[in-house]
Amino acid sequence: MSEARRREITVRILTLGCAKNSVDAEVLSGLLAGDGCRVVTRGRADVGIVNSCGFIREAKEESIEEILAMARLKKRGTIRRLVVAGCLARRYREELPESLPEVDLFVGPGDIPAVPGLLRGLFEGSAPRSRVEEIALPDEAYRHRLREGAGGSAYLKILEGCDHRCAYCAIPGIRGPLKSRDRESLLAEARMLVRGGAREICLIGQDITSYGADRGEAGGLAPLVRELCRIRDLRWLRLLYLYPTRVDRPLIDLVAGEEKVCKYLDIPIQHIDAGVLGRMGRRYGPEEVVSLLRRLRERIPGIFLRTTLIAGFPGETDAAFARLLRFVEEARFDYLGAFPYSREEGTRAYAMGRQIPERVKRERVRQVQETQAGILDARNRAMTGREVEILVEEVSGKGRARGRHRGQAPEVDGSVILSGYRGVASRFCRVRITGTREWDLLAKPVDSGPPPGILT
Question: Going by CATH, does the domain composed of 139-382 fall within 3.40.190.10?
Fold first, then answer.
């Protein structure tokens, strides 16, 4: 009998990048556990897996650094085999095996179901060096998902890939064309997440408003959301990453009228200058953006809006950037992420003329972030004295806890820092906002009795 079958294989997984990658890692953990492997978070392991990101330059550089760090652990004997999974492995499937001889196996995102068998093959001498064949995970794989920590919030990836073909984006080349997941599979996974303790589910995908379009199902997101809202014990449903022109009236009405859907939308605008939007390949102009924001705020009073902007796209003139900065001041998004344009090989924008110097791009991002910081500070201060419901995510003792209200998405929008809390994590609590601290809000439970303000 081989060594791989005589003893349990321990696996250490490091996940980088976005929430979609985190979901893939949880599927991988479940598949490994189901195959008799043991997933560990630190220390010695038979196999170290870097679940990589390959989206933009900074993410690629971080992935390479972590791979090399894991390779040093392999050299010291802390791990015995090194595997690189995820987007970087797929995007550079031809180059990486030659440039990273320390790595024993490369696998793409869609090849995760094959990993347990491949790991055993590594110890039997029968595994290929690279297995980067499938683009998307099959629906069946998600039922094996093993959520880390089983906290009160969970991501639900409803589709894979993208058909928009924006000039700057490498995602279609990595994750492939749009592929919507089966609705029954999504409902089953959502029920599983709720049974495991999730009270908030965040829908994610490259563009969730595209859900069903590959099957000729126009407006498929709204019916899916309605069915998800019927799940008992699900309290919050959050919509992340919506394409502006596909935020239509039925979807707006659904957000306005369905209690479980958070009055919060993440709509990446990317820019507001018509010329820049055209070169980016975005299918809308500034008038459509302004009209959408007005309709959302009129139909859904108090809605929280997040967006993403790119500064320094090829050909962005001083005047175009001035329009972008003025738009930030006037639109007054609740939350905003600003990033310098990343020149990515394999995209149309890579070969465009009038590339912007790196120092100029970063200075423009700084100005956007500085403008938005003032807007966020004013919005946070305006919340002082308000009562809101929060989902408690972390309890640190001595009455201190950290959570989020409905207008804050996980990981990106700051937190509500709570004092005087005597409950546990993954519960809801009604609080009064007492102040601010940088990006965060300070609060105390409204109720004084034990345990204070706990909602099931």
Answer: no
